[in-house]
Amino acid sequence: MQKTVYYTSVLFLRCVCVIYLFAFLSLYVQIPGLNGLNGILPARSELDSAKIGKQATLLDKLKAKPTLLWLAPDIGLNTEYAMELIALVGAAISFLAFVFRTLCTAPVFAALWILYQSLFQVNPVFLGFQWDILLLEVGFLSIVIAPLWSTRYRKADPTTSIRFWLVRWLIFRLMFSSGVVKLTSGCPTWWDLTALDVHFESQCIPTPLAWYAHHLPSWFLHLSTLGAHFIECIVPLFFFIPIRPVQYTAFYLQILLQVSIILTGNYSFFNLLTIVLCISLVDDHFFLYKEPKKPKAKSSFMSLLGVLVCIALYGGAIYITGVMFGFKLGPDNTPQFKAAFNQQHLKEVLTWFVPLTMVYGFTSLTFLAASEFFGVLRKNVGFFTKVFQLGRVVYVSLVVVSLFAISLVPYSLIRPRSRSEPPILTALEPIYAQTYKYHISSGYGLFRRMTGIDGRPEVIIEGSNSMEGPWKEFEFKYKPGDVSRRLPMVAPHQPRLDWQMWFAALSTYHDNPWIMSLAYRLLTGQPEVLKLLAQNDSFSKPPKYLRASLYTYRYTPWEKSAWWTRKKESEYFPMFSATHKPLLEYLQKLNLVNVKDWPLKNQYLVTILDSIRAIFQATDPVVSIWGVGFAAFAIMVSLFSPWKGAEMPPTSTTLQPPVPNTTASDEMSKVPMNAGSSVGVSAYLIAPFFMVLAVIFASILVFLIIRKRRLDELRHTLMPMYNFDPADEGDQDWEQELLESVQERMPYQHQLNIKVEI
């Protein structure tokens, strides 16, 4: 079966641009509070940690910390404004590259990779997530996949499929590693399939649907966990089987898993990026056009054979998975499971099976490269053209093999190390060590161990003007706090402070120095940091004292109207004040306060950057990011209509005489590439739908924001008047209880109005 991936690779590159757009914009709106001069972790402090001399050259600085921020003083900016400029330039380039296909070239993707790398290098705490590392690897592969200068993809290029194979190898490593590490970690919830019993409640920022998913029947959650194991551990083994039904089925199963995660959890752009990687599992036939018809009998037989092989492979895999986890029906006809193997058995198998998958992947690449090589030999082209194309195939194959070899080192870490390591891995380790800090290739594996089995821990920060209280809470925008606040939908935006608060709750404040900086910024009322939090009407000015407590949160049962119940467990960090000497000495030692930066000299550029920031601060980050994304899609469709430049078909039904000496391929060559294609027509027809959907989505968000603010104002106004504290245990249904409290103290004729307001 001959496959082409030319248009598929174009789609992949444009989708990578969208992910870059989301990533740059999401980080841009948070830079002042996270990494500004008065932020939680000033980026300037990270540059100072490089410990280079004053006489160091630019090359020395880049070796110590590879980031464009070293050039900030040359353009008259400090570190904070330079970070904003980098993020905006990255967003602008990715926006334009998505809209204009001709910009999807290697230099453009190299620029995007360097820009994101520059931000990543100075933000190890807030940009240290797996999807940031994954985006860097995907961005680097995009440089290899994209054409160097040519803006028109040629079907005759034999190296596209070889380069695009790297994406398939990456999605294999990502999914297979993510599945295997869940079992090798020894976490009992993954072995007895109870992980989803706690996952929807314990994940960082759950969506509203997560609450409902948490209350699904246990047998369904256990079956879903088994399905996740199947999709992550077994299905990736079918990625390299060159049978369309097999690969298409793998594609649909991966999309099913990622969409399910998107609906129940806010994981930034991670799941969207994973879906983009899954594009490598299909080809042009899936998206764009049909291949020339084969003889009917042969075509039908091959199609039927492919379907039968697909059914046999997946049917056998499902059966084996069920046997391995002891699937059986209980007395009440619900599924029951008990693993028929243990962790030691798995490690013994992985010792030889992981190297086998490396050989499996290399064999797939070898056959693909050989197929393209002999395909060039069979072409009826000139001698020099053939030599040039053969040289390109050999050169590109060597580059791809080199990147494949480097990726083997982090991939091999999912198995236990043996005494007799393969010599090739030992030889590759020094090479991988040289490239590690650039994250050209990395190891992956989320949710190795399930947290929050006994309830999710949450750090609640409180402030007061007196050591005796009363203490009032600082409310965050997205993480759980107020038990009655609706769960948010924020992806692809990532509120990085809220995410780090989730990690902080899993350890102590001694393990998270940044949280002491956060406490100090709250005590000093730093506006940049306060904008990362929800609007706190309880504090008209910064509190004199701050403390943090550790709570355990759980979802409410069906009969409760609130989302959470909570219980105070212990002190997280003791009471501090802004003048607390040990706190100040600790922060000064870490170079997090009184940081010296380059002077601002380019006032014209500073004014422009301030104006752009004012625009973004006027709207919710989620609305801004989705708005820019929909705008890019609408512009792309409006500028590149599938009919633009193409001659419309005649309206007359009269048959036209055939043109002599003209073949069908000659006629097709006169039509623009996007004219009449299914992708172009579909995009053209659904563009109005997406634009209307964007307006509806924005309207709903605005309505919810306004409604939430009105409810918050009502609560903060009425609760002090009627001595009602929603933080008291048992007061989870604050709306109903507040209503009853108000009605007891008000005349009957005013009760209806209050009921409507609430």
TrEMBL record:
User: What Gene Ontology cellular component terms go with this record?
Assistant: endoplasmic reticulum membrane
Q: How does it sit in the membrane?
A: Multi-pass membrane protein
Q: Which residues form the signal peptide?
A: none
Q: Which residues cross the membrane?
A: 6-29, 85-116, 128-149, 170-191, 219-243, 255-282, 302-329, 349-374, 394-414, 622-643, 681-706
- InterPro entries per record: LMF (IPR009613), LMF1/2_C (IPR057433), LMF1/2_N (IPR057434)
The subcellular location is:
Endoplasmic reticulum membrane
Q: Which residues form the Lipase maturation factor 1/2 C-terminal domain?
A: 441-574
UniProt xrefs under Pfam families: LMF1 (PF06762), LMF1_C (PF25179)
> GO BP, one example?
protein maturation
Q: Which UniProt keywords apply?
A: Endoplasmic reticulum, Glycoprotein, Membrane, Transmembrane, Transmembrane helix
Lineage, top-rank taxon, reads Eukaryota
In this protein, which residues make up the domain named Lipase maturation factor 1/2 N-terminal? 128-287
- Into which family does the record put it? Belongs to the lipase maturation factor family.
What's this protein's function?
Involved in the maturation of specific proteins in the endoplasmic reticulum.
User: Under which name does UniProt file this protein?
Assistant: Lipase maturation factor
Organism this protein belongs to: Cloeon dipterum
- Taxonomy of the source species: Eukaryota, Metazoa, Ecdysozoa, Arthropoda, Hexapoda
